[in-house]
Amino acid sequence: MSHAVSVDGVRFEKTLPDPLALPPVGYNPGHFRDPFVFRSDYDGLSHVPVTAELERPVIADRGGCLAHLVSEDLREWRTEEPFVIPGLYGSPECPDHFHPPGPGAFKPGSAGQDLKAKRECLS
Questions:
Q1: Which of 23, 59, 91, 108 could form a Cys-Cys staple with 27, CB 3.0–4.6 A?
Q2: What is the pTM of this model?
Q3: How many helices (H) does the chain have, and how many strands (E)?
Q4: What is the pLDDT of residues 13-30, one digit of tens each?
């Protein structure tokens, strides 16, 4: 995971350190993408759900989850327990966060799962 800045929204330059965070131990490095950074009003920390896949899921080929990174300064990151979606085929894509009353909630999506379900319905 890297951080880049732009003054025009077209050309971006990566900042140091690069990478900013690597897939933590226990995650498949090929499935670590789509970070969504937000600062929580609940604890004042920056949280990043990241599309990920467990290297050794309980159910074979069903390890899709959201890795959970936390930071106080956006430079040093620690890994928290993943947001696991039990039995998910593939990885949840493009996580988002919204602010309902209370601590907040994540909205994981999975285009791959949705497309697979549509193909099965059409078969």
A1: 23
A2: 0.72
A3: 1, 9
A4: 998 888 888 888 999 998
Rounded CA-CA distance 90/75 in Å is 29
Say if residues 92 and 85 touch (Cβ distance below 8 Å).
yes
CA-wise closest residue to 55 among 89, 29, 16 = 29
* Domain ranges within the chain, ordered by starting residue: 24-122
Task: State the DSSP code for 94.
Answer: E
Looking at residue 58, its amino acid is V
**Distance, CA of 78 to CA of 75 (rounded, Å):** 10
For tokens 């009353």, name the residue. 101
Q: Report whether 77 contacts 20 (CB < 8 A).
A: yes
